[in-house]
Amino acid sequence: MIEMHDVWKTYPNGVSALNGINVKIDRGEFVYVVGPSGAGKSTFIKLMYREVRLTKGRILVNGYNLERLKEHKIPLLRRQIGVVFQDFKLLPQLTAAENVAFAMEVIEAPTKKIRQRVNEVMELVGLGDRLNQLPNQLSGGEQQRVAVARAVVNNPAVIIADEPTGNLDPETSWEIMHVFKKINDQGTTIVMATHNKEIVNTMKRRVIAVEGGRIVRDERQGAYGYDD
């Protein structure tokens, strides 16, 4: 699903974020990316959906060779990827259902299919009765559920989540993680950057630890391994 071969990323200001990363993530895996602040986790995540471009090396995501990908083909790549952010990034003027539907409207899906699929994913994330609420009428946890629904509505091959529980209380964080587990159980690959020690140590999955721009640990049933 995802391969990185000798990947380096140096920003224009001279900061070296990643230094020779090699990793392979198989279809259907659930992977945590952990490490101290400034370790390179966000760059690691953003490279996968071409939010930033690598300096050197090779990245393959679901068959796409990212360093050779033309700008006009980036939307095709991103149709294969659902992204969930810490701060939800919902459109405030749209209802929950409309926020989710928007991801399908962008790819010009038929109206009937949009309506059916939006209902399906809103039930999946436990918000079947909140379709017509605006984001400011929803709790933080509900907003993140809408964001997750939006990320999966187009049946992506992989979900990339960057600190998806970072703004949520512990109980709500667990609710969101159970949603991610359901999605993963259906076969979707999930790569999640997180600082949530309790979740990583309890929901044991593969753990990739990044420090100083390098992978220092890659364990199949790993632990968080940091005090923060």
Task: Please explain how this structure is put together.
- Part of the ABC transporter FtsEX involved in cellular division.
- Belongs to the ABC transporter superfamily.
- This is Cell division ATP-binding protein FtsE.
- The protein is an alpha/beta fold.
- 32% of the residues lie in helices and 25% in strands.
- It has seven helices and ten strands.
- It has helices at residues 41-48, 74-78, 96-105, 111-124, 140-152, 170-185, 197-202; strands at 2-10, 16-25, 30-34, 56-61, 64-65, 81-84, 158-162, 189-193, 206-211, 214-219.
- The strands form two sheets. Strands 6-7-8-3-9-10 form a six-stranded mixed sheet, with helices on both faces. A four-stranded antiparallel sheet has the order 2-1-4-5, covered by helices on one side.
- α3 (96-105) packs parallel to α5.
- The protein is globular and about 45 Å long.
- The mean pLDDT is 93.
